[in-house]
Amino acid sequence: MGITSWHARTEKLFNFLRQSRYVEKMKSFHVGLAGLIEKNDKFLVLRRSADKDFAPDSWEPVTGRLEAEENPKDGILREIEEETRIKAQVVMPVDTWFLFRASKEFPMIFIAFWCKHVKGKVKLSWEHSEHKWITLSEAIGEPALQHFHRCFKRIKKIKQHLPKDFVL
Asked: Tens-digit pLDDT profile for the chain (168 aa)?
């Protein structure tokens, strides 16, 4: 999916939300971010700490929330550094979607970014208990990452159209 179609999809989502009956009920909504970080053809996934309030012990890419007046690209790079202490670069956005996190009282728009590792070793924050690097096929086949399968599948599709000698 190119950047133009991503913008069109995001605009369509925001228009839907503006016209939706949910917007009348929700005084606000949160913007969630995900960073699917690639290094040497593997992707970083993290296990949420057991004491997290939502989905403890589950596996996920780097995730977090957009802060007020923050650009989404800056937000995901901030979250990556806060949660892993590594430096990354955004390659491109790969997906957007709407969900209720845990309940209808927590509406959220999610934006997922394909990112590349730039430098640093993973040093986890308190929010996660372990990490691992897995292949794209492993990520797509991992039931624990089901909420992000579409994102990983889109990256796989994009990579199929890149030149064989393309280096991320």
From this structure: 555 666 677 677 666 666 665 555 556 778 999 999 999 999 999 998 877 666 667 899 999 999 988 999 999 999 999 999 999 999 999 999 987 866 666 688 999 999 999 999 999 999 899 999 999 999 999 999 999 999 999 999 999 998 888 777
| Among 44, 47, 32, CA closest to 120 | 44
**pTM (two decimals):** 0.81
Half-sphere exposure at residue 38, Cβ-oriented, CA atoms within 13 angstroms:
20
Strand 107-119 with 30-39, pairing: parallel
Alpha carbon distances (Å) from 106 to 28, 64, 87, 139, 156: 9, 14, 30, 27, 31
**Degrees to nearest 5, angle at CA 142 with 51 and 117:** 75
CATH T-level fold of 3-160: Nucleoside Triphosphate Pyrophosphohydrolase (3.90.79)
Dihedral sign for Cα 114, 120, 121, 127, please.
Answer: negative
Rounded CA-CA distance 155/136 in Å is 8
The answer to whether the beta carbons of residues 128 and 47 sit under 8 Å apart is: yes
